[in-house]
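Report of the visiting student (M.T.), summer placement. My assignment was to run the structure pipeline on a short list of targets and document each run. The first record concerns histidine kinase.
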Amino acid sequence: MVAWLRTRHAEPVTWRELAYLVLHGTLLVLLDAAATAIAFAPLLLLGAVSLPRSEGDTGSLDVAVAAAVAALAVLAVLAVALAALYLVPLAALAHGAVARQLLGPGAEAAVRTLTSSRARLVDAFEVERRRIERDLHDGAQQRLLELGITLVAIELELDEAPEAARPLVRKAAGQARSALAELRELVRGIHPRVLTDLGLAAAVADLADRSVVPVRVALDLPRRPPSTVESTAYFVVAEALANAARHADATTVTVSGRLDGDRLVVEVRDDGGGGADPGRGTGLAGLADRTDAVGGVLTLASPPGGPTVLRVELPW
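After the run finished, the structure tokens were exported:
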């Protein structure tokens, strides 16, 4: 308990909370009371207005005075109501600004968040680097090694039995095609060529064509977004489609995207079983860090039983 109190006394946020408590009990209470009084002032004025009553036959003078008083009362009520429309929201904004300034996360919280996000990104990039290294070693490197052995055999056969080299040439051609396909698949996983050449809509359509789950694509983009935003949106869609096929047992997936003001909004919806959890190693945590790195926001709604909706908003 003593250690906790010592830590709390050493944190700047504790003193900001204390300052807000003092202000809330003094100045902010007066501000709230003034705003409340201004808000109800028109009703109070209406209740306070009393028109003069005529006694006997006093002629048209009393009528004129009553009309003038009524007009002035209406003008006063309108003036106070108009003032309340401006002053009450200003009071609320001032109260909110003070609360955000004193109770909101300070610079140290932002630094902690950025440091944690950077550490997760470094870990994700390290995992990706190891995956690429493993794929090169186990895939393309082995294909090229087999191709080299076949070419050596062809060279030996050409000296002794040229006809026997013909099947080896066909084998070498097949191995070269396999190695090329392996490299293309690897490059596509890093940054697909179609994304660079044709943009996000074509790249997502290519993902949909290669998906084992039927995918409907509805991207309405007036122009191409910046390359970093485009790449982030692509990998979010790719990971969502992979999760829908591997984990959700989905039968249909819909990918939609549009420009909303100055933000690119992309949604991936599947009809699977739901229950997606970023903490279970589905790649969603890495996508959140990647999205945060470009100033975007990633949200996930995946109740048990589905559907799962992955939404990403990225600054255009």
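The chain has ten helices and five strands. Residues 108-190 form one domain. I thank the supervising group for their guidance throughout the placement.
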